[in-house]
Design brief:
binds CU-O-CU linkage; Immunoglobulin-like; binds copper (II) ion; seven-stranded mixed beta sheet; six-stranded mixed beta sheet; mainly beta
């Protein structure tokens, strides 16, 4: 791929930074497992902290974190339970929390100025909603996101099915990508125009659950449900589990017909989640690689699966069913749908001459002087200044909407819709095989897709690119459900 911004040589830097012999923290600290049942309230404190990102024998990294750790605590509840989270802002700038992918009432969506006043330093905010959908979700700030998420503010939110599938272990990997300096501190060049107008902030250090990992201990014969969450600002992952045949059972939290990934590669754009069923097919003491080769010429080893010496857990593979029950998402009524077109424009090597910025036609040159590089339907949005966004269109409640999204740029864009889950109907005119339910859909350069959903959640909802630098440089919009 020719369009990746020339970031620093990843694999060499990563080798420089990787501590030897680190085994992954396979299990994340959990906040109040089944908090709702015990009627507990979860407390999240967003503030500065330090984390051992590159290993215990290396310098600590100054981060921003929830409850002092990266990722923030894994919140686990059960479908149908009520989640109550009190967020305290101990940063010295405003923040909010967005519950990415899970359908909430608008007032709980965490978008500054659109759905709530940002949480001022020293203030708290109570988020409270019912977990209607089961699945793998995550939480992160929606204010100044490219800096706040980039410094470590994110955590997993797992909603368990009432009747989960049978696996030996249920494991979460929150993937992130950091741009670190030699002393393991975070490079301060957030928002530089190169990142904003090209592939986003692609870093040089990839972590699983907040640290560089050399090996992940596994046992022969076991079946793992592996929940992957991409919390990176800009990096897209393309994971190969060498010697294994993972099956995708959920995308963005929602069950999908279990299938092996196209080409054997699990592609995960920023903000996306994929649940895999991974049968540990190697024998005792085997060692296999997990490789990320999404960007051509920049493949690297993410970690090894390191088999223990124990005999296999079972002699033949498990034949327990792995299909997940459907979530209660309304089925789009395509015959009576209203159709809208959304065009993504801008970026380097694009053809965009200019866009509307704050109601004024502005040429690309003066846009770039103000750090703006992208547009949706010809409009560049900038909510850092607290500008309230006018919706690009308004939907009647319970109406089915088909959006045809055209990527008129030479860059990838994972587009995220708040408050709803949509089906991906087609790509470049071809119907999708699985009609996946998603909340974030990756568009390749020049790709055209169609998505459909029932507009059953009233409010103003963001529709934006989840490459956080693209979002900050104007690639966002809102849709109103009245
Ligand atoms: Cu994950 Cu609008 O966000
Ligand atoms: Cu984008």
């Amino acid at each position: 791929m020719s369009t990746l911004s020339p970031s620093r040589p990843l694999s060499r830097r990563r080798l420089l930074l990787a501590g030897g012999g680190l085994a992954a923290g396979f299990v994340l600290p959990r906040a109040n497992l089944f908090a709702a049942e015990s009627n507990a309230t979860i407390h999240l404190n967003a503030g500065p902290g330090t984390a051992s990102v590159v290993g215990p024998d290396r310098p600590q990294t100054a981060v921003w974190a929830y409850n002092g750790r990266v990722p923030g605590p894994e919140i686990r509840i059960r479908q149908g339970d009520r989640l109550r989270v009190v967020v305290t802002n101990s940063l010295d700038e405003e923040t909010t929390v967005h519950w990415h992918g899970i359908r909430t009432p608008n007032a709980m969506d965490g978008v500054p100025h659109l759905t709530q006043k940002p949480i001022a330093p020293g203030e708290t905010f109570l988020y409270e909603f019912d977990a209607v959908d089961a699945g793998t979700f995550w939480y992160h700030p929606h204010h100044h996101s490219h800096v706040q998420v980039g410094r470590g503010l994110y955590g997993p939110l797992i909603v368990e099915e009432r009747d989960p599938i049978q696996v030996d272990r249920d494991v979460t990997w929150v993937l992130d990508d950091w741009r670190l300096l030699e002393d393991a501190s975070i490079s301060n060049d957030f928002g530089n125009f190169m990142d904003m107008s090209h592939a986003g902030r692609v870093g040089n250090t990839v972590t699983i659950n907040g640290r560089v990992v050399d090996e992940v201990p596994v046992r022969a014969g076991e079946r793992v449900r592996l929940r992957l969450i991409n919390a990176a600002n800009g990096r897209i992952f393309g994971l190969r589990f060498k010697g294994h045949s993972p099956r995708i059972i959920a995308i963005d939290g929602h069950g999908v017909e279990p299938h092996e990934p196209a080409d054997g590669r699990v592609v995960l754009a920023p903000a996306q989640r994929i649940d895999l069923v991974l049968d540990m097919e190697g024998g005792p003491n085997a060692r296999t690689e997990v490789v990320d080769d999404f960007y051509e010429g920049l493949a690297y080893r993410l970690a090894d699966l390191a088999y223990g010496a124990e005999p296999p857990l079972r002699s033949a593979g498990s034949d327990a069913p792995v299909r997940l029950p459907a979530n209660p998402v309304a089925e789009p009524d395509l015959a009576n749908a209203v159709r809208h077109a959304v065009t993504l424009g801008g970026g380097m090597m694009g053809m965009m001459a200019g866009a509307m910025v704050h109601g004024r036609m502005t040429d690309m040159r003066s846009m770039t002087r103000h750090g703006m590089a992208w547009a949706i339907n010809g409009v560049t949005h900038d909510h850092a200044q607290g500008h309230v966004m006018d919706p690009i269109f308004t939907l009647k409640r319970n109406q089915t909407c088909v959006i045809a999204v055209a990527n008129d740029t030479v860059w990838h864009h994972p587009m995220h819709l708040h408050g709803h889950t949509f089906r991906v109907l087609s790509r470049n005119g071809e119907p999708t095989r699985y009609r996946e339910w998603q909340d974030t859909v990756l568009l390749s350069p020049r790709e055209r897709i169609e998505i459909a959903f029932v507009a059953d959640n009233p409010g103003d909802w963001m529709f934006h690119c989840h490459i956080l630098e693209h979002q900050a440089a104007g690639m966002m919009s809102a849709i109103r459900v009245a």
